[in-house]
Every structure is written in structure tokens, then in C-alpha cells.
Amino acid sequence: MKTNIFAWFFVLSFPFLAGAQVEDKIVGPGGKRFPVAVSPLKNLGTNTADSARLSTGIADAMVHDLELSGWFRVLDRSAYIENAQSSGITLGTFDLKDWATIGAEGLVKGGFTIQGDEVTVELRLFDVYQNKERIGKRYTGRVRDFRRIAHKFVDEIINQFTGIPGIFNTRIAYVSNSGGRFKEIYLSHLDGSEKFQVTDNHTINLSPDWSPDGRSILYSSFKDRSQTLYLFDLDSGKEIKFTPRGGGRYLGGKFSPDGQTIVVTLESAGNTNLYLLDRSGNVIRQVTENPGIEVSPSWSPDGKQIVFVSDRSGSPQLYILDLQSGKTRRLTYSGSYNTSPEWSPKGDRIVYTGRVGSRFAVFTMSVDGGEPRKLTSESSDSEDPTWSPDGRFIAFSSNRAGKYHLYVMQASGDNQRRLTGSGGDDTKPSWSPRLN
Amino acid sequence: MTASFRMACYIFMAGITLIGGACAPSATGKTDSAASGAAGARQPGGDQRAGEGQRGKTGESDADKSSLKQLQEGKSAATAASSPLKDVFFEFDRYDLTSDARTILRANADWLKSNSSTRVEIEGHCDERGTNEYNLALGAKRAQAAREFLSTLGIPADRLSTISYGEEIPVCREQSESCWKQNRRARFVIVQGRSTS
Known about the structure:
The complex is a heterodimer of chains A (436) and B (197). Chain A contains 5 helices and 30 strands. Chain A is mainly β and 436 residues long.
């Protein structure tokens, strides 16, 4: 099944790969990946202090993304024959045989010019066998944001191969205690760059969620002693505090896909229920009314349904609420502990954390119910899954290397790779929408 | 943790407070060093604190501080041996009161009746397993269960407030059932009208 989908994508969208050969080379039984070379970039301007750093830095960022996608095998740079600074970057100004010889079928080359704190970068993708340029792009940005340019170009490469842009120009919000004993909210790109600390209040901050425009972070905090929600604006650094009118505490919340509504968990007198708020924190209406625990809501992409966790059956299980009819149906029946659901951006599946024996693993399940698919091993704990904006990847936290770190995998569970290593526990990832 | 030490903790869970008093603070000391680098209860000067708690004549003993305050001050959130109000413990993913928990709550209610000017904040806590938000809700259930039982024993509800810290402020940081069971607790913090006797 998986093989066919990939083969279909690759054949359809990358025309210079043909027929049966494609299946063999990219998605053969050995899990082979498309072999690509990423040359260090050529400095097209005068040498500055940043030149060498950018030449390899942009290439390194692209290598990271291509490997993380699971669809490419990036050939080791030490095998490259030509000198990146003396050879050309357009077709006919370098020798493609130098790349065919080492087994590259795709080749990324580029050049850059630094002017003050601005950099202009040209990047190209070549088909080594067909002797053709497939993508050519020019980007201008701040020197210190050079990795973003690399992420954007890899998103183009993935678009070329699969018909859907990649998701590497995104960030992940997460909770970490790396700064000491407190839990604070951080943001970083998938390669760990441009780390930004959202909170620094020396208490406990939890459950970060991105607004769909990528400009604000909703999170819960104990910073004013009683736990409630805060909406932090990334541009201005200002934030709004959400205070429940009738008492109680907001434990967490999630933006609706259109960004206009927030579904929150309100705890009052021991009971938790879901409410809808507007962006200013005013209550629109209560949507569950149950004496038990009702937490961890997540919206369907059309904004019409909400998947959430309830203990109404005696153990935490997933339920789906239809907002218009008010009807609720139970989704999970296997396992005694199923939590932290997130609805996929494609709408067809829900990812969640389930207990297996004494461990926790990441599962996905069709929204119609059916057999859950376990994606992570129960030899350690894997929790808090979040979808990439294209629904083709899942980030999660796992203690497989001792402390909790963030990992990313394909939605099939393949190609699990570690993203963070802050020294503390990194948990509760929330994947941003695509950024500009 | 040595076997005899662990035994002492089990006895503490059963509510025999004489031995338990010695167990709780040292349990924290032990796990702090074991889990170096983890967030939370690293605590220079922790021993000195325990001493202050025992003096307990006036005001600020550790027993009177919220777990969040303890965390901020870099101290263990374990209830001090000198506290007149003892923790009650819960089974995994449960918030119903065990018979041991009811025994402790009756003793707590007796103290609250003879110290009628006190107000108490009941903290609900969970072990680390499961998701943060579910555990915040579960902790709220635990605190509320303790509150309702104290109310049925005649403690006015307006003397009892609740807060949940979920799994966020454990007293023990090892990954074992003996540790987790210490964390699944309701804790009682005297927020007003402390006893000066």
C-alpha cells in the first residue's frame, strides 16, 4: 500500500524517473531512497566573515531536511569530486559526470552574495541523468535567517517530487525544563535553529498551541498561581490572559482551523468540560456537560467536529463531538488508556497516545474507528503526538534515549529521528502551520 | 532505595505516621541525587528547611507552603513530618478514596475541627504517567474527592479550596511504582489561621 502510493507520487511528479526502475530505486523492498547530492554553495560576491559559514551552512540545513523527510539519501560530501567554489552553478558550467560517477541522481547546487546583513541565494535542482534543471529559485533575506532559505528550497524540492510542498519552513512549540526545574515554552525550527523562549516566569507552563496564522502561541501557565490560559503574540511580545468568569481554571486550549474560536478545557469543582471561546477569551458556549474528566480537545480540519478525551466509560478514551448536532460518539475501544488526540490536517486519521502494558506508544486511527495502528515501540514511552501541516509527518516526545526528547517520523511510523537534545526533558510538541 | 527504606515508605502509605515522618523527607533527598539534572526538587539547604519545619512555632513552616512555592524555592514539595495534616494517596488513574485514605482524612478532619480558624488548600497530584492535561484534570478530581469527604465529616466547604498540579510537582522522581505511588496524592496546605500552639 505504502509502496504504491510513493511510487505513484514519484512517477507522476518527477517525470525524469521512469517506470519500474523508480519503484526499485526509491521504494524498493530495502527501503531505498532517492540518491541526491547537495553541494556546498558558491560564494558569488566578495569574501566576508560569514562566507564560509553560509557556504556549508545552507547546504547542511538542506541535507538535514532531506534526510529527515525519509525520501532521500544524501550522498556524503567527502565523496564529491568538483570544487564548489571554482565550478559553475548553471547547466553547462560544471560536469554532470562528476556527480553521476558517485551515484547522484539528483543534484542541488547554488550560490550566494552577501551585502551587509542581507544575503541573496540562488538554488537549483538538477536531474543528473537527464541533464536538466528541474527547479531554479532566488531568495533574499537576512544573513542570520539563512537556514530558512534552505528550508524553503527543500519544501520546493519535495513539491517537485510529491506534488505537495514540504513542511521544513515550520517551527515546533514545546515545553522544556532544560533551563532548570521549571517548565517553560520554547519554539525552534526542526533543525533546532532559531530557538526562542516564549515564557520565562519560573513556574509551570504547558500545552502550547499555534494560532493558524502562525503569529501567536496559546499556552497554559501557573504564573499567576491559579492555572489559566495566555495568548502570546509573537510579533509584539504582548499577551492576553484568559480568566474564567464564573471561577475555575483553564487547563488547555486549541485554536479552530479558521483561527476565530478556541476550544478550552475548564476545570470547576473537580469537573472538566469543554467550552468555546472567542479570540478575546469570551465564552461562546459550553459544548460538553459531564461530571467526569473531559480534556485534550482537537478540531477536525473543517471545524465541525472535535475529538477529545473523556473518562465517562471509566478509563480515558477518545470521543468525537459533532458541534452542530451535539452528538458524541466513542472512537477508541481497545486499550485502557487513550489520550492526547490530534486530528490530521487531511481529516482522515487521528493520532493519539495509548498505553501498551506499562508503556505509552503513539497510534493513529481512522476517524471512522477501526483498527488502531501502533507507530512506536513500547520498549520506551512515546507521547504527545502532533501532525505536520501537510499531515505526512508526526512529531512526538519520547524517553527512548533517557530523558524526553522530541522526535519526528513519517505518518506511517517510518524514519523516526530525534530533533532535540536540550539536556532537559522536551515534551508537548505543537507543530506550526507553514510559515512565510 | 534500599529494601528496608522502601518498606518504611510502604508503611507510611498505610498511614503509620511515626515511621512515615522519617520516610518522606529522606525519600526526597534520595531521589534528588538520583535524578540529578531533572527539573524540580534539587534543594541546597533542604535539610535546614526540614529543621525549620519541625520548629514550626510560628508562621512559615514548609508544611504551610504550596507545592508551587516549594518548587520555586528549590525545595521538595513533600509534606513535612511536622504537618498536622497528612497526605492521602490514590491508585493509578483513580480518584476514589481508599479505606486508608478515609482513615487519614478522618484524622485530618479532627485536627481541622479543633483548629477551626484554619483554611486549607487541597492540592491534587498525579504520577508522571499519562498526559499532562489529563493528569491536571485527574488531580482536580482527587483534590475534590478529599474536599467532599472532609465536608461530609463536617468541615465547612468554605474552609477548603482546591488546586491541581497534575503530574508537574512530584516528590519522587524515579520510574518505579514505589515512587509513583508517593506522587499520586492529595496534599493539604494551611493557607490561613495557622496553629500557633
